[in-house]
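Hello forum,

I keep getting stuck at the same step: I have a sequence, I want structure tokens, and every attempt I make locally crashes halfway through. Rather than fight my setup again tonight, could one of you with a working pipeline run this one for me? It's a single chain of 238 residues.
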Amino acid sequence: MGVDLSIVIPARNESGVLSGTLKGLTTANIREIIVVDGQSDDDTEAIARAHGAKVVVSEPSRGCQLNAGAAAATGDSLLFIHADSQLQCGFEHEIEDVLNRPGVVAGAFRLRIDSQKRAYRLIEKMVDYRSRWLQLPYGDQAIFVKAGTFHQLGGFPALPVMEDFVFARRLRKLGKIYIAGSSVITSSRRWESEGIWRTTLRNQAIIAAYWLGISPERLARWRYGFDAHEEVVDTSQA
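Reply #2:
Ran it on my machine without issues. Output:
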């Protein structure tokens, strides 16, 4: 009998990477894979269907997409993973083990960035420290949680940015967020396109601004230069 796990993948115009992600997940013994398409202009939806995934169409906002996928899920547990990330073999059993630990309400994986550059090893250590000691994993670490706990919290907040940050803070009030021993391997494409340290410092500045009370809508306009409701936003890079 497989693990009663539903995997939710928010995606928009991810035809270049989605196939690789789905190939790594379809070999797992799980209930279902749900791709939530944020009104893509490319072949994202067709690729998802070709790999046997259930497709849900949502407005192009990360928090809304995650919630739409969870609403369509039928598994007892939920895994949220980005369209450009891959998990190691046997991840479904590790999730099951983690969620059955006493006092644990959710979990996430160690972050591994798909690049040989030494700077990324430092970023990975920073992420590991933050997620373990501060109990704050971000979305690129593939957060997983019991469906009942997810719905108890009301899902992800409907924010244009910071949805994973706020969700993790709500989770840790209920219990421990456990970081699994294996890694989720995520693409380095956003760091490479915008600069490693520029991307890192920018996102820390967004967090600081959020703490100071600047609205998520204003932060989205500052970060992406458009109306927060027009495009998918991604604050996952640490």
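The chain has one domain: 3-224. If your local run keeps crashing, start a new thread with the error log.
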